[in-house]
Each structure stands twice: as C-alpha cells, then as structure tokens.
Specification:
2 helices; 6-stranded antiparallel beta barrel; Pnp Oxidase, Chain A; 43% strand; Thrombin, subunit H; mainly beta; 2 domains; 10-stranded antiparallel beta sheet; 242 residues
Length: 242
C-alpha cells in the first residue's frame, strides 16, 4: 500500500524567493484570523485592484468576500492580497464560483504565499536604472541599481565612474536614482533624490564585480516618495502571471 503523504506544516522556501504553505489547517487559521479581526484584503486582477474589502464567511471549501462597490463582474481568476500580523504581504490565487451584488464566493485556496519578512519590501529593478552619490568628497556615477526598498538599495559598480576606495560605514550624500522608464514608472523617466545614507556593506560577486549595499537616512518627503514608488512596484510584481 502506498504511504499517504502528510501535508507540510508552516512555511517552506519557494524557488521564486517567496515562502509557501500547502497546509489546509495552516491556511484556515490564517484566513480565520483575517475574518475574526476584520483585517482588510485586496482583490487583484490584471488591470483591476479593489479597495479594501473583507472575508465574511469561510469553510474548508469556500470563502465569501464582501463584494467591492466597483467590482466589474467579468473576472474568473483573481489574486487575494493581505498583510499579516507582521505587516508582510501574503497572497493566494483562486477562482470565483459565484457572485451577486453583496458577495463573491471563492474557492478555498490550496496554496498560500508570503512575500518577504524583511522590514522593507525589496523590489528587483527591471531595465536600466542608474544611481550616483558623493562619498569621501568624490562623485560616483553610473552605478547600476540591482534592487531597491524604502530602507536602501543594492548597486553594482560595473561601468561605474568611481574612486573605487569606498568602504563599509562610509557616509554618502546627494544620492540620485534615475529610472530610464518601464512598468514601474509607466514608461516615463523618473529621478528619486535621497539626501544621505551610508555604505552598509560591500560585496565581491562571483564575477568579481564590486557591489554596495546602501542604507538610506530618509528626510522630509523622501520617505513618502520612495514608499509610493516601492508600493507601486510591489503591486506590479504581484500582478505578474495573472
């Protein structure tokens, strides 16, 4: 007799950098907590994002969701997005069974994904994005931005114009991040300015190129502008594959 496999418990690492659980009980506990505490969820489909809504009932097969006022009524597959108690994005993919003016009935998910546990969501930067800053009184330009968060960024020094002597803990000022256009900026060129930060760490990669982790010290409206960009990029990442 073939031995029955036990469902995995808790979170497991996923090849795409997410964490995943396929445990029905674990998923039920998470979603029941959302319902009990009236935590908001968001419904996503390519070209559509709902406002905050909520789970109003669920069992092992179905989930009833309060129908958003602007629900277009022509989607079959959707992504359900929410933040957990640690303020980390979670999501699951599902299908709509039925709908009326008040309620959407969804299939109970077989998988639940958690994005990242770091304090700030880090987005990969597609296309050309360059940074520059001043360190030790010298201007460093043409640094390639690999990823970006509200907390900081990773830059690599391929083709960079730099003194090359930048060390850990060195302060940096007059940081400019230039986007050449893409889905993160609606195809438009964009520049984000950050007054100051410091080198959190330096890395030598497998191909021998030097990369730097820059930590931001955000001031005034800098955090708001960067947060808006990262949040927009978060949602663009979540819509992929829909």
């Amino acid at each position: 007799m073939k031995k029955k496999q036990m469902a995995p418990r808790g979170w497991q690492e996923n090849a795409n950098g997410y964490e995943i659980t396929k445990s029905p009980q674990f998923i039920m506990n998470m979603l029941s907590s959302l319902k009990k505490n009236r935590r908001f969820i968001i419904l996503l489909h390519k070209g559509y994002q709902s406002g905050n809504t909520a789970i109003i009932a669920l069992d092992a097969k179905n989930i009833d969701v309060d129908c958003p006022p602007d629900w277009p009524g022509n989607y079959h597959k959707i992504k359900v997005l929410f933040r957990d108690d640690s303020n980390v994005w979670n999501y699951f993919n599902t299908q709509i069974i039925s709908e009326n003016q008040d309620t959407l009935k969804l299939f109970f998910p077989t998988e639940l994904f958690r994005m990242q546990r770091r304090a700030h969501f880090r987005v990969q930067i597609p296309g050309e994005c360059k940074a520059e800053f001043i360190c030790q009184g010298e201007k460093n330009t043409n640094l390639r931005v690999e990823d970006l968060s509200v907390g900081g960024m990773k830059v690599c020094m391929t083709d960079a114009v730099s003194s090359g002597n930048i060390k850990d803990a060195e302060p940096v000022v007059d940081i400019l991040i230039r986007f050449s256009g893409g889905e993160n900026t609606d195809g438009e060129q964009k520049t984000i300015a950050v007054s100051e930060g410091f080198v959190a760490r330096s890395l030598i990669m497998a191909d021998n190129q030097k990369c730097l982790g820059i930590k931001f010290n955000l001031q005034g409206t800098e955090e708001k502008e960067l947060s808006q960009f990262v949040r927009k990029s978060e949602l663009a990442e979540l819509r992929k594959g829909m």
